[in-house]
Design brief:
Blueprint (H helix, E strand, L loop, with lengths): L15 H6 L3 E8 L2 E8 L4 E8 L2 E4 L19 E3 L3 E5 L6 E5 L6 E2 L6 E8 L2 E8 L2 E8 L5 E6 L3 E7 L5 E7 L10 E6 L10 E4 L7 E6 L5 E5 L6 E6 L2 E4 L19 E5 L2 E8 L2 E8 L3 E2 L6 E7 L3 E8 L2 E9 L5 E6 L13 E7 L2 E8 L10 E5 L13 H8 L3 E6 L8 H5 L8 H15 L8 E6 L1 H12 L5 E5 L5 H7 L7 H5 L7 H6 L13 E6 L7 H13 L4 E6 L9 H22 L1
Parallel strand pairs: 31-32, 31-33, 33-34, 34-35, 35-36
Antiparallel strand pairs: 1-2, 2-3, 3-4, 5-6, 6-7, 7-8, 9-10, 10-11, 11-12, 13-14, 14-15, 15-16, 17-18, 18-19, 19-20, 21-22, 22-23, 23-24, 25-26, 26-27, 27-28, 29-30, 30-32
Length: 608
């Protein structure tokens, strides 16, 4: 036998640890009199820290021992705001407000107690916030000088996006009541300031006559009120005009994501005839100035979040198929792009698997997503189907180090926006109504058939994985279909009825919308509960669960594992004592990713 020896240096493998380390992310970009600020998450210590761009460099403001993250509605958002001389932020550990100057001083406590805060805004010496006390929610202001709290609004079940007009004479906000969700039916409310400084009784200006989802209300410099609404089929900008609403010229596309978190900003009105916005077309993000003189600023990027602007620059958090999330500044005149933070590629461009648009038939409908080819040259590689959580959420065509981890190991990936996902309009989003565990499962199975027929994968080596709601779809697919060779549930739902009893207020009625009333529709629940049909699962399953999870409690996973073990199915389970719903610590994320890959490898070795 002839042997050849390659003396060239070998590339170090793209490990799970490297994939996780590349998962730096950003949120809540804001620009003010002192410059640009953002919140940055780093996997190595799972902390979120504020950064300030000044003198051509990024400076970290958050000292050791602090992490800037809200937990209002469990998913948080809007965790900081700019003040006249610094910032106010929510500290993750105690959920209280702290004020901090820009002089590297230790943050000072502004509030204390059991309340949690989010969606912070600052105006005229006060912090405007959503306040959460157990299951009660309100809008309040906190005086910056002495921390005095003032109640603004209460009575609705949920509040979001409190916004003051430039002259501080009008207050607008979004509210909704159970059983509605923020992406099904909300109301836009307005109150006027009186001579004594207090606000008048609130009045509903949109969302009372028709069922619509409203988000991101905005005032322009002249005090005109705008809002995104899906009454036309997509989340598009409308403006209040003579006590009526009219749409602004816009693409037939969603201009905002499903508002799982507070504090989002995907559009900004400039005047009655122009606005800055990001939107999605075919799943890919666009960025531009819209109106009388439209300008396209999309460039090489495919997703845009948290927009801000000043006279010279458009700022946003952007990502592309070959670069991770970054804070960027786009010169409004020259269109030159400057990366202020992030944007690194963990692999050379030629080694990155680039997303291809998926649009394929599924039962009586059509589904969407993105296909990532394997990077090992196999003509018919095994497939991993990614199911996002939510389920009213979405995946995006941007560099995801986890997907690259699989592609580097010879797997193709189908990242699905199954029916019910956001980003494709209201009708597509509403397609999951009373159909969770049905149409999403059909879409997950149909993509295997679609890719097999096109000769892009080995359909006999298809795997499925998902976290949270994606874990539920995964388990349903394994229990009710015979398409996948194995699956992975990351803090996934196995018993919807048990989830409904234990979950938090924000999602307290979500299951009624997704499946039905647990009492009157008990038969439907029984038919779509993986735990009750564990005997139908005939392939190996691996589980990952945080012990501190308050959304999908650990007992759900333990019950499912036990049921499968009793049936003699190969099961592996990993529990993490220091994780909640969604893993944040780098070591745990890397461990889970690697163990999942090893698990699938063992399954394929047994097949061979």
């Amino acid at each position: 036998m002839n042997e050849t020896h390659d003396s060239s240096p070998k590339a170090e493998p793209f490990s799970a640890a490297k994939a996780v380390a590349a998962g730096i992310d950003f949120a809540e970009l804001q620009v003010g009199r002192h410059g640009l600020f953002w919140n940055e998450y780093r996997p190595e210590d799972a902390a979120c820290r504020l950064w300030h761009w000044r003198d051509g460099q990024a400076h970290c403001l958050t000292p050791a021992g602090f992490s800037v993250r809200s937990r209002v509605y469990e998913y948080g958002g809007g965790a900081f705001c700019l003040t006249d001389d610094g910032v106010v932020f929510v500290n993750e550990a105690d959920q209280q407000l702290y004020r901090q100057s820009l002089k590297d001083e230790t943050p000072e406590t502004l509030t204390s107690g059991e309340c949690r805060y989010g969606d912070l805004q600052f105006a005229h010496g006060q912090v405007l916030a959503v306040e959460e006390h157990r299951d009660r929610h309100r809008l309040v202001t906190i005086d910056l000088a002495d921390g005095a709290r003032h109640l603004l609004v209460e009575g609705a079940d949920f509040y979001a996006a409190p916004t003051l007009s430039p002259d501080a004479q009008r207050l607008a906000w979004i509210e909704w009541s159970r059983p509605d969700q923020p992406w099904t039916a909300t109301r836009l409310m307005v109150a006027d300031r009186q001579g004594d400084g207090r606000f008048t009784q609130a009045r509903c200006v949109a969302g009372d006559a028709v069922q619509e989802s409203l988000q991101q209300p905005r005032f322009d410099g002249s005090g005109r009120l705008y809002c995104l609404t899906d009454r036309g089929g997509y989340w598009q900008p409308w403006v209040e005009s003579s006590y009526a609403w009219r749409p602004l010229p816009s693409a037939a596309a969603d201009h905002g994501p499903a508002p799982w978190q507070l504090g989002g900003c995907t559009w900004l009105p400039l005047n009655e005839n122009a606005y800055l916005a990001s939107w999605t077309e075919g799943g890919f993000g666009r960025l531009g100035l819209c109106g009388e003189n439209p300008e396209d600023f999309t460039g090489d990027y495919s997703r845009f979040r948290h927009l801000a602007l000043d006279d010279q620059f458009i700022y946003c958090i952007a990502a592309s198929p070959v670069s991770s999330s970054a804070v960027i500044a786009i010169d409004r005149k020259t269109r030159q792009v400057k990366v202020l933070a992030g944007g690194m590629a963990p692999l050379p461009a030629e080694q990155i698997s680039v997303p291809q648009t998926l649009r394929y038939p599924s039962s009586s409908g059509e589904a969407h997503g993105f296909f990532y080819p394997a990077m090992t040259g196999d003509t018919k590689p095994p497939l991993v189907v990614f199911i996002h959580g939510g389920p009213t959420s979405a995946c995006y065509p941007m560099l995801d180090p986890r997907i690259q981890y699989w592609a580097q190991r010879g797997f193709a990936v189908a990242d699905l926006n199954y029916r019910g996902s956001s980003g494709y309009g209201r009708a597509y989003r509403q397609a999951l109504h009373l159909s969770w565990g049905d149409v999403d499962v059909e879409d997950a199975c149909a993509v295997v058939t679609h890719l097999t027929q096109r000769g892009l994968i080995d359909g006999d080596k298809a795997f499925i994985r998902g976290g949270s709601a994606g874990g539920y779809t995964t388990l349903c697919a394994l229990a009710f279909k015979k398409v996948f060779r194995a699956g992975a549930s990351l803090y996934g739902v196995s018993d919807p009825v048990a989830l409904g009893r234990a979950t938090h207020k924000f999602e307290g009625d979500y299951l009624d919308w997704l499946i039905g009333d647990p009492v009157t529709d008990a038969e439907r629940y029984d038919a779509r509960t993986p735990l009750l049909h564990a005997s139908n699962i005939s392939v190996p399953v691996i589980f990952f669960q945080g012990e501190l999870d308050a959304v999908v409690v650990p007992q759900q996973t333990r019950d499912m594992v036990e049921a499968l073990q009793k049936n003699g199915i190969l099961v592996e389970a990993h529990y993490y004592a220091d994780e909640r719903h969604g893993f944040r610590k780098a070591g745990n994320q890397a461990h889970a990713l690697e163990q999942e890959w090893l698990f699938y490898r063992r399954v394929m070795d047994q097949m061979d």
